[in-house]
Amino acid sequence: MKILLLGYGKMGKNIEAIALDRGHEVVGKINEENIDDLNNFNGDNVDVAIEFSRPEAAFENCLYCADNNIPVVSGTTGWLDRKEEIETKVQNNNGAFFYASNYSVGVNIFFKVNSFLARLMNKHPEYNVKLDEIHHTEKLDAPSGTAITLAEGVLDEVDRKESWVNSDTEKVEELEIESFREPGVPGTHSVYYSSSIDEIEIKHTAHSRQGFALGAVLVAEWILDKKGVLSMDNFMDF
Ligand SMILES: NC(=O)C1=CN([C@@H]2O[C@H](COP(=O)(O)OP(=O)(O)OC[C@H]3O[C@@H](n4cnc5c(N)ncnc54)[C@H](OP(=O)(O)O)[C@@H]3O)[C@@H](O)[C@H]2O)C=CC1
Ligand SMILES: O=C(O)C1=N[C@H](C(=O)O)C[C@H](O)C1
Q1: Mean pLDDT, 10 residues at a time, over the chain (238 residues)?
Q2: Which three-class secondary structure state does DSSP give residue 82?
Q3: Cβ(149) to ligand 2 under 6 A?
Q4: Closest ligand 1 atom to Cα of 60
Q5: For residue 123, what are the contacts with CB-CB under 8 A and spacing of at least 6?
Q6: Distance 125 CA to ligand 2 centre (A)
Q7: Structural domain boundaries of the chain?
Q8: What is the pLDDT of residue 238?
């Protein structure tokens, strides 16, 4: 398949290596400095775009794909306030758009464990719930997209929590997400339920970017014959 890489940084390069290994062709690599080259690509010469760029670039990149009949697999975090506009456009154009805050299989299983635990904990107000995430120091957004997805999973189930905050909080209705930045950390997420008696912790630790990149390529292969707005729940068939 012919892949267009929108964003050729740490993730773009990992995705390229896996895509080539799986027999695919990378027909374009777009970064900020060659963004004008994007106009050379459309649904006639690209099978799928894989978009891992920057929060401020993702909307325009996905919009270009929607307008030019290119299915897009996006993993960029920190731009979700505009995601619905893309979804509406894709539905109107009968295109294909896939978004995940995290493409690793392990994290998507972890999301389900998080929801299950949160459901159990709804009946146990003696436990306070908090999240934290650790990432490399180049990360531009906080909290991570994965932490936001985990927080949404908790908020959906735990009635005593109403919203998440990316700071310390004493308010019981607020769900605290703490963000740490340390050199070289690919991504670590933990959810804690603490009472005066004990603590339950669930944790996912990525050892490298391999899981994110492989997941994105597998989704790109899967989406080729699909239409509409799709997610990891569709891909993993939970
Ligand atoms: N969903 C998931 O599973 C994962 C998501 N991510 C997310 O993916 C994104 C990218 O991560 P990462 O690769 O580590 O970041 P990098 O900073 O290493 O790479 C981002 C790349 O995007 C390029 N870029 C900047 N502007 C544009 C533009 N307008 N169009 C296309 N490309 C552009 C940058 O180019 P230049 O250097 O020229 O500015 C850079 O090469 C982040 O939002 C991150 O949170 C990361 C890992 C997993
Ligand atoms: O920026 C990263 O590196 C990562 N970003 C994603 C996020 O914000 O959750 C996924 C992964 O944790 C790595």
Answers
A1: 98 98 98 97 98 97 98 97 97 97 98 98 98 98 98 98 97 97 98 98 98 98 97 92
A2: helix
A3: no
A4: 29
A5: none
A6: 31
A7: 2-103+210-236, 105-205
A8: 75
SS3 50: strand
Our answer on whether the CB atom of 7 is closer than 6 Å to any ligand 1 atom is: yes
Question: Distance between terminal CA atoms of the chain?
Answer: 26
Tokens matching residue 216: 């994105």
CATH topology (fold) of 2-103+210-236:
Rossmann fold (3.40.50)
- The length of the chain in residues reads 238
CATH code of the domain made up of 105-205: 3.30.360.10
How remote is the CA of residue 193 from the centroid of ligand 1, in Å?
33
51 neighbors 74 (Cβ within 8 angstroms): yes
Structure ipTM = 0.99
Tokens 């994007």 map to which residue? 38
- The predicted pLDDT at position 237 comes to 83
